[in-house]
Amino acid sequence: MGQQPGTYTSAHSQGSRQDVQITDGPGATRAFDDQILITDLVAAKALATPHTLAVAGEQEPLTYGELERRANRLAHYLISRGAGPERPAIICLPRSPNLVLSALAILKTGAAYVPLDPRWPPDRLKFVTRDSGAALLITQGTMAADIASDQCPVVDLQAGAEAIARSPGSPHPTGAVAQSLAYIIYTSGSTDEPKGVEITHRSVLNLIHWHRLTFRVTPADRATLVASPEFDASVWELWPYLAAGASLHVPDDSHRNDAERLRDWLISQAISITFVPTPLAELMMGLEWPVATPLRLMLTGADTLHHYPPAGLPFQLINNYGPTECAVVTTSGLVPAGGSAESLPSIGKPITNMRVILLGDNLKPVPAGAKGELCVSGEGLARGYRNRPELAAEKFITNPYSAEHGARL
């Protein structure tokens, strides 16, 4: 969720207003098939239900069949321009069906996608383009001229529309495997240069399978794409729902940044599951909601949750935590209504195939109820940092509490 590890208190203690409690230890262990990649999961839904709505926004909505065909055509075109496994491709597009389509197409080439915010300063866009070693940069319209680079060919979805439409609509073998890169998210760089965090398909697949099972996602669900493209929560909003055959709905900025307008939009669109960043979720919890709202789950994260939901909300609130260095979510838990104002809500317990442990000096576990540094391990852990092997070696260390060869912490 873009958060950074810090000081936490074990849930065995009473806590205080300054402490966020956590249930440390391992999450459930569950095997999953990592030979069926993200693209395979979406393609299966397109084959089974081609006329079902996949993505809706201000642009023309896409059914699963249309999403699959258009992503295949774009993937063939990108391959002809140099995309391929372990060759990242940048997406610089606003939240839209085209963003979803482009991310899927990049994965279909076997490449990893690198989402950037078109509103970023030019210097930051150029830094990420250079640092990522991207083979291509996908954008559209006037943005293409603003971010064109001699170092990275630009694919303009508008200017290249005819050539893309002439490309084959059948899938191309991706060449990707479970350990191939799926995406690279760049951290904010508030204290130093932005760091590109490399996440593999296997890590995303663990997230997808946990999410679908835990929140009982079905094709009947209507979910949202609220997070900005460069925020790793957008990864979470895309793939679990498309892999389940649910529909994805994209609110415009005037709705997503205003609590009351977002509430009204969620109700009008019959949204059943949404992600909302923590500050906005806290505002929305204080609003009036109709008893019969279709919304059943509001997922939140990315900042410290300060309040418990009031009694009577027609949906459940789920608090989530995870540094960018894991595939979005590391811990998750239901926030009960009317909790004690003496302590902050918990960030939950580790998700499936993840482990968290509170360590003190010399990497020794702290006693129950004591404060410690939150360390994480498991299937969601990133490969490392793009082009920063020394920093990766410093932060991703051998896990002294695992018997598995090569396990990292």
Provide a short characterization of the protein structure.
By secondary structure, the chain is α/β, with parallel strands linked by helices. The chain is built from twelve helices and 21 strands.
Question: Could you please describe the fold and organization of this structure?
Answer:
This protein is an alpha/beta fold and 409 residues long. It contains twelve helices and 21 strands. The strands form five sheets. The protein has a five-stranded mixed beta sheet, with no helix packed on it. A five-stranded mixed beta sheet has the order 14-15-16-17-18. Helix 1 (38-48) crosses helix 2 (64-80).
Structural class: alpha/beta
Helical proportion, percent range: 25-40%
List low-confidence stretches: 11-19
Q: What is the end-to-end distance?
A: 18 Å
Tally of helical segments:
12
Strand content: 15-25%
Count of distinct strands: 21
Mean pLDDT: 90
User: What is the makeup of the main sheet?
Assistant: 5 strands, mixed
Radius of gyration: 21 Å
